[in-house]
């Protein structure tokens, strides 16, 4: 099955009595070498690397304690000479689990240098991949009577313009033609067609969208396609803020959707472009200064009141990792004023108060910025031209059926993937519900528009007396 890509791995971390047996790691290596010779499998040398530098051993152990909710002072399972029945915690047996240099590996395997040469053969097989790609648009089918997407886009835009405007003045025609020329030259016509398609299709299913967000409101093409509801001619909005002809970059239209209808839009996109071609986007939650202090203080067993005092003394604008020497402290102080400056001075006083505080904060500075957890981007959805697992690494979503790209929002676009922002908004759903209440009361109870609006207000503000009176009118 694996052919030349099957290897036997040797490691030397100086481990004795593996899994409680009388065999050491070196005993195991000798057995593996004999198997490699017997079965004709290539042996290679590696090091089980869990942190980068050898001096990172201590901070790695702290992160293990944070993740397993254990105290640093609790003995490790591997520790020798422990009394029977004593509580232990997970930890690594020694400090050999870092990313070793070539010379360190050569010294460690000097008796069998060929295994390192074999490791190099794996490196030589690694393909050099350029992750920076031009935007890859998913295929969008157009009616047979049109030659290409640009022609179809022009047709849709002018069809919409004739509905939006009573008369297509020279100003309007000039603006439309200018925008279409820029869009055609940039190659993003398909982008507008994709958005127009899912918005039109979902509106037909009574899904509500917002009027438009950001610079996209400056596009008359977006307005004529009903992507936005704001007339850029009437309000004198600039198209160049959205798509600059002198410095063309991928357009970015944020789509506001009623929150209860967002999943319908995603389901439509999945059905149209195939499940394997659509994913959500991962987010990486990082440890920040205050939580770093609290995490380290907890595993060090420092009194909670002291840990809380230190954490609360860190101004929100201060990154404790930037505190390295007197010059860095002076630089931070120069940017603070008022209460924040007083807080920071108190923080530095606490730092210098005793060795425990200093050690706690020094540890916290090292883990500050580490990734704590992963989540799913609130609105980002990727639509690819083919299976995403051929373009990006994927993972399972914790609370959904869709896959999640392991590239975060910043990398997705540079990797040439089309990202749509589907932002579910409660206020759009609320407006929709209010309009439904007014419409139902007019049609069912023959309310006037004024009565319908009074009912809406009474329901929104829970005015029971007003609703009771209107109830009688409604029943009549």
TrEMBL record:
GO terms for molecular function: 3'-5' exonuclease activity; DNA-directed DNA polymerase activity. InterPro entries: DNA_pol3_alpha_NTPase_dom, DNA_pol3_alpha_thumb_dom, DNA_pol3_finger, DnaE2/DnaE/PolC, Pol/histidinol_Pase-like. The keyword Nucleotidyltransferase applies. The keyword Nucleotidyltransferase applies. Keywords: DNA replication, DNA-directed DNA polymerase, Nucleotidyltransferase, Transferase. GO terms for biological process: DNA replication. It comes from the Eukaryota. NCBIfam families: polc (TIGR00594). This is DNA-directed DNA polymerase. It comes from Cyprideis torosa.
């Amino acid at each position: 099955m694996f052919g030349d890509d099957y290897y036997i791995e040797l490691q030397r971390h100086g481990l004795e009595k593996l899994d409680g047996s009388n065999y050491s790691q070196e005993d195991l290596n000798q057995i593996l070498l004999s198997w490699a010779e017997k079965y004709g499998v290539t042996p290679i040398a590696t090091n089980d690397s869990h942190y980068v530098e050898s001096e990172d051993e201590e901070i790695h152990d702290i992160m293990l304690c944070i993740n397993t909710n254990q105290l640093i002072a609790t003995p490790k399972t591997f520790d020798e000479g422990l009394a029977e029945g004593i509580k232990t915690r997970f930890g690594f047996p020694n400090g050999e689990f870092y990313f070793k240099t070539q010379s360190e590996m050569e010294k460690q395997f000097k008796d069998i240098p060929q295994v390192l040469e074999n490791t190099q053969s794996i490196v030589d097989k690694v393909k050099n991949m350029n992750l920076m790609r031009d935007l890859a648009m998913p295929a969008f089918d157009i009616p047979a009577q049109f030659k290409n997407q640009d022609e179809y886009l022009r047709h849709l835009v002018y069809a919409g313009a004739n509905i939006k405007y009573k008369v297509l003045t020279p100003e309007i025609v000039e603006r439309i033609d200018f925008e279409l020329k820029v869009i055609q030259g940039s190659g993003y016509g398909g982008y507008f067609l994709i958005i127009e398609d899912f918005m039109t299709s979902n509106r037909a299913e009574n899904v509500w969208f917002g009027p438009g967000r950001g610079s996209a409101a400056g596009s008359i093409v977006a307005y004529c396609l009903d992507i936005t509801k704001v007339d850029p001619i009437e309000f004198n909005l600039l198209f160049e803020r959205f798509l600059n002809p002198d410095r063309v970059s991928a357009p970015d239209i944020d789509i506001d959707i009623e929150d209860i209808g967002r999943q319908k839009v995603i389901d439509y996109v999945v059905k149209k472009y195939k499940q394997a071609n659509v994913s959500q986007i991962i987010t990486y939650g990082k440890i920040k200064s205050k939580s770093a202090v609290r995490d380290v203080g907890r595993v060090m067993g420092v009194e909670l009141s002291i840990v809380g005092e230190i954490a609360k003394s860190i101004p929100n604008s201060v990154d404790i990792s930037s505190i390295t020497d007197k010059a860095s402290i002076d630089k931070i102080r120069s940017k603070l004023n008022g209460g924040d400056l007083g807080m920071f001075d108190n923080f530095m006083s606490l730092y210098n108060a005793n060795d425990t505080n200093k050690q706690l904060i020094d540890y916290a500075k090292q883990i500050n910025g580490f990734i704590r957890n992963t989540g799913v981007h609130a609105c980002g959805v990727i639509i690819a031209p083919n299976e995403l697992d051929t373009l990006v690494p994927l993972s399972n979503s914790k609370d959904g059926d869709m896959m999640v790209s392991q590239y975060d929002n910043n990398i997705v676009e540079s990797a040439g993937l089309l990202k749509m922002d589907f932002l579910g908004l409660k206020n759009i759903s609320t407006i929709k519900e209010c309009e439904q209440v007014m419409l139902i009361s007019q049609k069912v109870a023959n309310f006037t528009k004024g009565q319908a609006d009074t009912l809406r207000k009474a329901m929104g503000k829970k005015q029971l007396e007003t609703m009771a009176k209107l109830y009688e009118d409604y029943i009549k």
